[in-house]
Amino acid sequence: MDSAIRVVRTERLEAAVQVPVAIVGGGACGLTAAIALADAGIACMVLERDATPSGSTALSSGFIPAAGTQVQRAQGIADSPALFAGDIRQKARGTAAEHLVAAYAQAAAPALDALAAHGLRFDVLTGFLYPGHGLHRMHSLPQRTGAALVAALLEAAKAAGIDVLGSARVVELHADAQDRILGVGIERPGGAIETLACEVLLLACNGFGGHPRLVRELLPEMRGAVFAGHTGNDGSAILWGRQLGAALADLGGYQGHGSWVVPQGALMTWAVMMEGGVQLNARGERFHEETQGYSEAAVEVLAQPGGIAWNVFGDAQLALAREFPDFREAEKAGAVRTAQDRHGLARIVGCAAAALAPEIERFGPPFHAVRVTGALFHTQGGLDIDAECRVRRPDGSVLPNLLAAGGAARGVSGNAAWGYLSGNGLLSAVAGGWIAARTAADELSASLSRG
To answer: Which of 40, 364, 371, 409 is the most exposed place for a label (fewest CB within 10 A)?
Structure first.
């Protein structure tokens, strides 16, 4: 895998096709950037390794946090980028990259408002607060899925006349001796490599959660976890960055989840925990404070006997969970078990009835239980970038025309699982993509001025 991901040094690139901006990755980050570029009248091409864009976005819940949007105001929610940034800082205990916290909190609302103008119909979830958020600011499409989000973004991109090339896995970056990107090499079905020249390159591709060696090297605490993310998270951005001499940052940050349903292999919404559900281990013990967050819960669950826990909840939480399509599918697959009393629940969990944590009395009987483990969803560390999404070297200087955002770059979760605020992944993708588009436009304008 690693040998295919390479930087090719050259002073001249012969390519049949040239575009002002090439974007590697057709998830929320890449498509948001492409739409913003189209609004600015700048042509680009999105290069997507899958036949149809999906990636980490499609596997997510599709909820995007933003403060001060038109939708929030319409729903009577008074929020601001400053309040949002404060929640990000507090969750990360002050360890998140401050320049990105400020930039992303400020950019998220105009990015979503711009997407709304392209037909994406967001509303704000108000039934409960996600961990770490002081106000309701999770924006979602009516379908409540990440697959619906990426499909809507793709539809908007095509309607805007944007070229989205599927089955186009970028394996090469062509760069001159000054690290200016000249273009990319694209592996097409059948193995042929095609070249595309560009003036600006945006890496909106992936993290490294699907690259076992990089996980062992850079994120050892999750080396034994189920990887529930997209296979496209192959670490290519980091591998290219190392070859270019770019700086890396916050490699210990990631989004884990302590509620990966087994053996069905599905994500169970953490809303159940936020509304009173509890997690029990095989001894019937409640082993952590669930409302702290689902990312750090992954580590807590994996530390339990067998790396397994039970999500236990009552009828009210079950009704809430059924609002989410992923849960309904898991329930159809037999994930939910129901007990009419403590003894029945104890048999499900595999412990003595007397050993069950007293907190279960807050919602039952009946008791509902789902067997879960801890999983790694996506990494939050990557290429170091400045507030304009320019890739930086270790000395703080920037590479001439290389941008990165979303999973390819460091996020705003600091350097540990507990720093992940709900929605930080899509925040980095959407706000980062929107900022990167503006930076690309500025770079092209400056290039024209230089003659």
So the answer is: 40
Mean local confidence (pLDDT), 421-442: 97
Among residues 232, 326, 229, the alpha carbon closest in space to that of 30 is found at 232
d(CA 64, CA 301): 26
Residues 49 and 171: their CA atoms lie apart, in Å, by: 10
Total number of domains constituting the chain? 2
pTM of the model as a whole? 0.91
Secondary structure E strands in 300-433? 308-313, 336-339, 367-379, 382-383, 390-392, 398-404
Kindly state whether residues 206 and 231 are assigned to the same domain.
Answer: yes
Domain identity same for 219 and 236: yes
Q: Give me the residues paired with residue 233 across strands.
A: none
Q: What is the CATH number of the domain that holds 161?
A: 3.50.50.60
Residue 138 shares a structural domain with residue 47: yes
The per-residue pLDDT for 451 is 59
Buried b (16+ CB within 10 A) or exposed e, 213-228: ebbeebbebbeebbbb
Specify whether 153 is located in the same domain as 291: no
CATH number, domain with residue 308: 3.90.700.10
Q: Which of 346, 377, 408 is the last residue of a domain?
A: 377
Angle among Cα 97, 30, 402 to the nearest 5 degrees reads 60
Structure tokens at 38: 């189209």
305 shares a domain with 233 = no
Q: Report the C-alpha gap between 195 and 187 in whole angstroms.
A: 9
Number of other CB atoms surrounding residue 419 within 10 Å: 28
Instruction: Please choose, from the candidates 28, 21, 22, 1, the residue with its C-alpha nearest in 3D space to the C-alpha of residue 433.
Output: 28
pLDDT digits (tens, 9 = 90+) for 48-59: 999 999 888 988
Same domain for 296 and 395, yes or no, is: no
Query: What is the C-alpha to C-alpha distance for residues 173 and 408, in angstroms, rounded to an integer?
Result: 15
Close Cβ partners of 421 (under 8 Å, ≥ 6 residues apart): 65, 87, 88, 91, 92, 131, 132, 133, 293, 412, 413
pLDDT tens-digit series, residues 305-336: 999 999 999 999 999 999 998 899 999 999 99
pLDDT tens, 303-313? Answer: 999 999 999 99
